[in-house]
Write a structure and sequence with these properties.
Strand 3 and strand 4 form a beta hairpin. The chain is an alpha+beta fold. 45% of the residues lie in helices and 22% in strands. It contains 12 helices and 12 strands. Strands 1-3-4-11-6-9-12 form a 7-stranded antiparallel β-sheet, sandwiched between helices. A 5-stranded antiparallel β-sheet has the order 2-5-10-7-8.
Length: 323
């Protein structure tokens, strides 16, 4: 599976530890008494796009992997052979071919897999979820979407996601899909994220449900599209009114009904999200440079607004990415 995308084939446990450490994972190995003299073996095949990683993992020994709480990615693991479990500070979720769990960013957890296990691993970025959420609702998510319920792989969203992963892997192995095939990769990513956001429980369901039941008017859609394309450019309220094609009072009323914020407040929220994403992705050399890039000129007010929106200072976000 994914044989053309071999990332690691090793009989050296330290080599695997270094491989995982570079991806915010700490590895501990344990062996049963009857396996002490058995040679170590690990195989990892990894297909990566800008937002998604699909990995096939096969090991010859029991694994205990500690995932960093500062990793800004979602993770889903399906055992193809053997047993495994994802352990959170207050609960454990056994993972099988019938049921797994989605680990959300910033959630400390550990994974245990028995010896000679085979795993299918899927992870995707925060920015991909944000973009898909915004596409579905017409409004940004100010905080990360959190999935906190087991995912049934036999029906509903889980079944769709698993079949989508299997299909794309089959097509990759057959040579029908590669990194230069944006159409099918885009369809795969949309299928996975839309299925999870629309049909699997998460922290932003109420917002998504409300905005699906209250379609955006033409003026709101036009202004949202304009705002998302002008995050690094000076924008005045008069510009938004002009793009909306209605009076200022009508635009404010329609915006509040759909997003819960005024047009200018929406613009500030969208820019705060853009700053956070740049800091998390390592696209900024400093907080000040990043804030100025997105139009925040008063650092004190910017830091206060950022902390209120995300529960931490921008410097802390940048420091996490640095680690």
């Amino acid at each position: 599976m994914l044989d053309d995308y071999r990332a690691l084939l090793s009989a050296d446990a330290d080599e695997m530890k270094k491989f995982l450490a570079a991806r915010d994972m700490a590895l501990a190995l344990s062996r049963n008494a009857d396996e002490q003299d058995a040679p170590f073996h690990a195989e990892i095949n990894l297909f990566e796009t800008e937002d998604f990683r699909i990995a096939y993992v096969q090991t010859g020994t029991e694994l205990h992997v500690d995932f960093s709480e500062d990793c800004y990615r979602y993770r889903m693991i399906v055992p193809l052979k053997g047993r495994m479990c994802v352990e959170f500070p207050d609960v454990s979720h056994p993972c099988t071919r019938e049921q797994t769990t989605i680990v959300s960013p910033g959630t400390p957890h550990k994974m245990w897999s028995e010896s000679r296990g085979t795993l299918l691993f899927l992870s995707f970025s925060v920015s991909a979820v944000r973009k898909r959420f915004s596409t579905l609702t017409g409004a940004p998510a100010m905080e990360e979407v959190i999935f906190d319920q087991p995912l049934d792989l036999r029906s509903g969203a889980g079944s769709i996601v698993l079949q989508a992963v299997k299909l794309i892997v089959e097509e990759i192995d057959a040579g029908s899909v590669s990194l230069s095939d944006p159409w099918r990769l885009s369809h795969f990513e949309e299928t996975v994220l839309s299925s999870l956001l629309l049909y699997h429980p998460h922290s932003h369901q109420d917002q998504l449900r409300h905005q699906r039941n209250s379609p955006a008017s033409r003026d709101v859609r036009a202004v949202i599209e304009f705002v998302e394309s002008q995050l690094e450019e000076p924008v005045r309220l008069e510009d938004l009114v002009r793009i909306g094609g209605v009076s200022q009072s009508a635009l404010n009323k329609n915006f509040r009904a759909f997003t819960g914020a005024t047009p200018m407040a929406y613009l500030r929220q969208a820019r705060l999200i853009a700053v956070r994403q740049a800091l998390m992705d390592g696209d900024a050399d400093s907080v000040t440079d990043c804030a100025l890039k997105y139009g925040f000129t008063h650092m004190g007010r910017f830091s206060a607004a950022y902390a209120k929106a995300f529960g931490e200072t921008p410097s802390k976000t940048l420091a996490k990415r640095g680690r």
